[in-house]
## 1
Amino acid sequence: MNCRFSYFVTILSMLTTALAAQAAGQETSFMTNVYGRDYQLLNGKWNAIVDLYDQGEKMKVYENRTPRTNEEFFEYSFEGGLRLNVPGDWNSQLPELKYYEGTVWYARHFEADPRPGERQFLYFGAVSYRCKVYLNEEKIAEHEGGFTPFETELTGKLKDGDNFLTVMVNNRRTTDAIPALAFDWWNYGGITRDVMLVTVPDQYVRDYFVRLADNDSKSVRVSVTLAQPQETEVTVSIPELKVSQSVMTSPDGKAELTLKTPRLQLWQPEKARLYDVVLSCAGDTVSEKIGFRYLETDGTKILVNGEPVFMRSVSFHEEIPQRRGRAFSEADAHMLLSEAAALGVNMIRLAHYPQNEYIVRLAEQMGIILWQEIPVWQGIDFEDAGTKAKAQRMFVEMLQRDKNRCAVCFWGVANETKPSDARNAFLLSLLEKGRAMDPTRLYAAAFDLVYFNEETGLFEMDDPFADNLDVVAVNKYMGWYHPWPVPPTEAVWNVVPDKPLIISEFGGEALYGQHGDRDVTSSWSEEYQARLYEDNLEMFKHIPNLAGVSPWVLFDFRSPYRFHPVNQEDWNRKGLVSDQGYRKQAWYIMHEFYKECSKNCRNGK
Ligand code: GCB
């Protein structure tokens, strides 16, 4: 192809991709495995303007103008003012921004060297919560949703040499947002994950889904989509297994193939096994480490590779407590995951939103099962069609990013929702989308409406939506939000008795280093929290279909509605580990339980 023609084909394909995305009702789509591509990080210090009254758009600050005549002046300048780290939340970078909810403009220059035959994309790991992106004064993208990535194509828009990038970021809470008006974590705003300038060839492997073909290890199924619709050869190989296979894409640029893999070893919890998988088409090669495992449920059991696994889980927010800010780096992922591993877990419920890729990829290397969910967290407006479409897009973005991460075994659709027709239709639409895209995972949701039935003397739940799920999870704060109606030894559950049940949250608050009466909730003492753990562990013996437990939560985390001036000070103190990184008494109880459980727990027995 000559250069001019190739340029024309590229522009045409950009248009078809954009139109197809629009037709599918998606605002955004992005390439698979961006970290496997040739990229330049645009992280670092960015200039910033705090725009409390949302005037920046009207003033066109993204034009970044400076006076050229004696009469001209501008009431802004990106130079000489605030500088913010990217990635990073703004709240932890300046005392005045600790509680800030509004707009901040970010801007920076970068050098580009666009070449014919190549395409460039700007990729944001996450911007919290909504944003508009401008390149060289032109608006090129917008996105809503603080925990999933998006990209925008820059081919044909980049200047040779200096380019100016502006991002308007807004984290104001609204009723139609996800999460909505109130949620129990800090509303961090900012460009909170990596920003990447990605270069790929004109034609490239844009998307792929690699997984086991069947519930055994004998063959691997691969679905590939090329960037441009074209009949051409694609090859998939797993060098370590000495397998490689080629197939022609159909005219739409898509192909399916199955690799025979008789010697494949499966990825298992606590025994990670990953293989380099290489995908190529003419002029493009991309590879990454991928693991293989299969999931099923059998009555009340969760099976990984055909074996029942009891989920010894814990949750954490994407937050480094000691820094009082969002986690964003590989080093952060090491800190969070090593503390989780020390507790003895084989699973993490990533609370309450998709967390950054460093966490997901490292957990996979460590053999830790993940549950990922979108922040459909209480208070969501299920009646609002726009909110529903937003949730679907977020869910698709989460699946799209991590579909090749075998560690992710559960996709969570919601946390603590109340039954209603609108809620059911909303959540069902997520399940339908998910199952159509990815039938290889277990679909779950966490409920909080389990109650003690005085007549039957059992803990029960009436939420028919549970029938739609593979695994049902319950958050239950016995001994904290709920006093014990019967002693823990008599606390027997009859909740979705035919399905696997995970206790996805339990716990209570304690201020590290505070000692007090183990019988008094308001002592906020380590002793009370430890006793609460003992009681709950006792209760778990009476949940016949128990398939896993997940204490809430690994670390104390910041939450603006935790008002108690002495015991909380804007912190949710349910951590097993304090904000300073110290283990509380309850940590040792849970650790001991998990040590025993790793030998003895088989779905509650
Ligand atoms: C819950 C929520 C979780 C909260 C927790 C609490 O049920 O799912 O996000 O942080 O309770 O501490 O109240």
Note: Residues 184, 352, 415-416, 448, 475, 505, 552, 572, 574 surround GCB (CB under 6 Å).
## 2
Amino acid sequence: MARARVDDKNQRMVKIVTITDTSIAEAASVIKRGGLLGLPTETVYGLAANALDGRAVARIFEAKGRPAFNPLIIHVANKAAAEKLATFNAAAHAVTDALWPGPLTIILPRRADSGISELATAGLPTIALRCPAHAGARAVIEAAGVPVAAPSANASGTLSPTTAQHVAASLGDALDMILAAGACPVGLESTVLDLSGDMPVILRPGAVTPDDIARVLGITPAIDDGQHDAPKSPGQLLRHYAPKTPVRLNAKDLQAGEALLAFGPTLLGRHLPDSAKRNLSDGSDLHEAAANLFGYLHTLDAGGHSGIAVMPVPDTGLGLAINDRLKRAANS
Ligand code: TXA
Ligand code: MG
């Protein structure tokens, strides 16, 4: 069912269409003709365009207000398509065979004959590749028949979108269509794993954990979160995942005017109205917490609170990725 939606800020019509076989074909044709598509994936919604088409890729950077030095992830429907774009090494074969499709992006040397827009890879000798687990996303990419560049579908530097409504609110009038498939089940951007050097390095923690990668490669990848002088991932230079409201981490109490983002069973915030509190997971489930994180930050950020107090989240497994996003939200 197609329905038109008025974007609050810009009063322009954005077409949000529920995912069906018909709308998948329509979404693929938006990509084929050089348009911009809001694409659901298992991690976050993407702002998708034909990665072979420099003008379409330029529209992505323009819509997001993204600095041109920050390269995009290229999405493919399967490993064979990825092998046409990058030079695979043994580690790349092993991790993609074990962990694709899934929330894992790999960085590899870009092939000279890849045909990918230089703007999409920001002139780098490497390329970021991902094959999403979301069956609808893969169906769109397959039907488009081209590699698909897709950053998260939010204005640069703001919270990533986990619903079609988040996409419409952030970028609405810049898009030709938003394909809606409900809330993203993972809720955090993919793990970015650099396999272009001698040793595997995680440049962005995500739902594929260091342990998952260690099980495949027999070696635990280092995590380089870019908090030093020479970040490897251009995106690490940027202010990221930032709500407008100040975020205070590891909160054990509440200050006047603050909203609460809780984790696990707690009495903290029992006097707050429901509108001023969310619990990432009452049962301390990290997967549930990751899926709720950006949506709850969006909601609390819109509430006009003086701050958002965030209770501690364990720094293990998926908690590494949750805490990475929370630190970036608090640092801005
Ligand atoms: O889950 C995801 O990965 C989502 C969905 C839509 O697939 N996409 C996403 O894209 O998060 P984006 O553009 O928001 O983040 C891509 C990150 C950036 O930090 C960028 O700097 C990094 O990947 N990146 C891209 N190409 C790179 C390269 N060649 N070397 C190092 N980092 C790279
Ligand atoms: Mg992003």
Note: Residues 41, 43-44, 46, 70-73, 105, 107, 121, 124, 126-128, 130, 150-152, 189-190, 192, 203-204, 232-235 surround threonylcarbamoyladenylate (ligand 1) (CB under 6 Å).
## 3
Amino acid sequence: MRMSDVLRQLRQQHALAGARPRLLERFEAFLPITDATPLISLGEGFTPLVHARTLGRAIGCPQLHLKIEGQNPTGSFKDRGMVLAVAKAMEDGSRALVCASTGNTAASAAAYGAHAGMDVIVVLPRGQVAMGKLLQALAAGARVIAVDGGFDGALRAVRELVHDPDPAHPITLVNSVNPFRLEGQKTAAFEVCEDLGGAPDYLAIPVGNAGNITAYWQGFCEYRAAGLVETAPVMLGFQAEGAAPLVTGRTVADPQTVATAIRIGDPASGARALRARDESGGRIEAVSDEEILDAYRDLARYEGIFCEPASAASVAGVRKLAAEGAIDPGTTIVCVLTGHGLKDPETAKREAISPTLESEPTADGIRRALGW
Ligand code: F0G
């Protein structure tokens, strides 16, 4: 058979199997989409749910599953909300986007803005953005502005900028205070339910600005209300110690620290996250940098899943609760891993990597290097 025939056959098979669905199309019934909304896509969503057998057994939770959001187009969960926020901005005739960010929102806004042919401005806390994220924003041609005052200061500044619009420079805010962001992000909860054939018992998630925990809870509640699942999970949110404003008795110690986790002192969706916690009978707890980095290393070594450090807060938190006996070992737990490990090469170099061995290019040399 000629190559072109093989290719034609493969294409036909693909068409029969159904091409990769587009997120906005697949979940249209649950999203605020009109005939005028452009169904753009960079291939976001439909991320894997991986059963973490080894790590699950090690921490006493054999039904531990990981939702790998680092496999989104720009390497984080932000793409689910950004695709809808940008599609709605296009529908409204907007020409420019702005956001404050610790890096992932910026990378996502830059990519979807480029795809939509819009100008993108990202305001970042100086010295607190991991190199991968910064490079993604710059590569996509976003205008990057560094400010002092941490993420909270950056978000205040961009909210002020759009609150008092300059008619010469109309601009759409794409932080998670934009309601379309959370509408898009809730699709991850739909996928979890579909992959498991029902809602999990627990959903564990890192909390920064508290948008994502709010979106997941909304998603689970909507699938339950539609009769697609019978239950909703207990929501477990984990914040970085030292910046855990939703945890009773904890205050922001040093929001200027270079982030292992996402350190946000004044979460924009804080009240809604507390409601998700209370309605689900869940908890929001603090985890230390050490606990987060332990989980980050173990995820890569025992499961082959390289996530960014902030993501590992979910697994660190579940490990801690399981050790305290606060989680029933028979239950199904989903930990959301929000971003990809390559976002932050510096932390990987510092925390995760064993030294490179040296050898001349011979089999004997390699044996010697391995100590065989
Ligand atoms: N995990 C990662 C990798 C993040 O980048 C963020 C937030 C969170 C968790 C927390 O999610 O804010 O919805 O509670 N990053 C934002 C940003 C702040 O600018 O990229 P949240």
Note: Residues 251-259 have pLDDT under 50 and may be disordered.
## 4
Amino acid sequence: MTHPAHVDVVVVGAGIAGLYALHRLTEAGLTVQGFEAGDGVGGTWYWNRYPGARCDVESVDYSYSFDEDLQQEWDWTERYASQPEILRYLEHVADRFDLRRHIAFGTRVDAASFDAATHRWTVTTDAGTTTASFLVLAVGCLSAAQVPDFPGLDTFRGEVLHTGQWPADGVDLAGRRVGVIGTGSSAIQAIPVIAEQAAELIVFQRTPNYSVPAGNRPLSPDELAAVKAGYAEHRRRARETFFGFVFPLSELSSRPALEVPAADRDREFQTRWDRGGAGMTRAFADILTDRQANETAAEFIRSKIREQVTDPRTAELLVPVDHPFGTKRPPIDTDYYDTFNRDDVTLVDVRSDPIVEVVPSGVRTGAATYDLDVLVLATGFDAMTGPLLRMDIRGVGGRELRDKWAAGPVTYLGLATEGFPNMFVVAGAGSPSVMSNMMVSIEQHVDWIVACLQHLRAEGHTVIEACADAEQAWVEHVNATAATTLYPEANSWYLGANVPGKPRVFMPYVGGIVDYRKRCEDVAGRGYAGFQLA
Ligand code: N01
């Protein structure tokens, strides 16, 4: 596809955010050009095809709400949709709204620079350049794979695969010895499925995680019909929750955990455990803000791990102790702990016996060499800032975004950053994004951006830029909000702790989506207060 010389808006990325942005912008009468590194739409759901990949937000919530016909005609088959089903859905959305014609696939944006004289961005891809009045970065929060610098990785004779870059044609693991490094959400989903397929599985764990059963199951036609009958109300309620989806609450949910007798507390945890999914952190009001309250939930999960894993030594290795429950994104699983009862699955604790190197035949720790045919790196992502900073983005006066964010991301509302006019980030650092149902956040962000561009057009403005003082105040607010929670206590990707040398800054906004939306609406209502319009 040849690039147009100039468009109103360039949208980078054709995942959930990029597709919705293209739809809304074209609907608003703007000319657009989308660029997507993958050969198809889907973003996260295009790249993460590892065995067992599925969403941890329920399908009826993890779907667009903007079009009533779309949500009525699509039938989700399971409580939590699998990667292939979500990808089919996004392909359907692209076709239904005729979005593919705006997208150059297989085209990676390498650089973008702003010209203060013409008020235009020049966007450079591996196939050419385009200028645009506005730049919308919809590149995802978890799209830059993090590959640890293991000595000898390139000498491995077998196949090395990252969960976030899984081959589209799949990988036949039958009869092969597979190693998985990591025990985050991706690994916890992949491990039970890989164990079924492979001859032998070795799991290299550095930090044990708290995993809760997903309780995945088929969605019955009656359930689906009931949701569809009340979809508008369901969506409205979801938008009024803290995270953007309706957790089942009980009369205990608003109470501090330690005010509730221990037996009642455990009954509540058990109810949520049996129901499955992400509700454990909402069992009581202070699970994510009070260490002792958190410990009651953590202890409950630890007891479940000990119950499920028959070998006591393996069970103890799987029990998490070094971070509060929920301060890393809580994985939800299908048969994760039970998988370690299999004779063909081995858990290696690389905290006490670190990986020294990868050798041609496998992985060598201080104590042993593990021979492998396939090495799966479930080692996560350079989250939130990685996908942006891997591009060479330059604002006014050639200032590099990499320089501006050298000590961590600095944004106004997560949407914009001073010195980089006419550039918007969808679900960026400083927004609720990964701390919410991404669908709800993405729709809110994109709607806000499109309304902003319409306002500029109506008022005859060609430039919008975040003001330094508004940005500073927002960053302080984001940090102060995080400091009221337990989140900063974990070495998580939220903090950049998983990438050596990355500044330790808590990136998402944990004030909730209702609070955030009100702030965004207030800013717009006051003529885009905190932005300079020219
Ligand atoms: O990545 P992670 P992920 N040596 O960063 C280990 C979303 N997601 O891809 O904890 C040894 O969580 C690392 O160990 P440690 C979700 O938001 C959602 O699993 O740093 N180990 C950790 O165990 C999630 O949070 C879904 O000590 C190394 C693992 O690799 C996010 O994506 C599914 C290592 C990385 O875990 C990221 O999840 C999947 C090293 N050098 C993902 N380097 C659903 O919707 C890293 N590790 C369900």
Note: The chain has a mean pLDDT of 97.
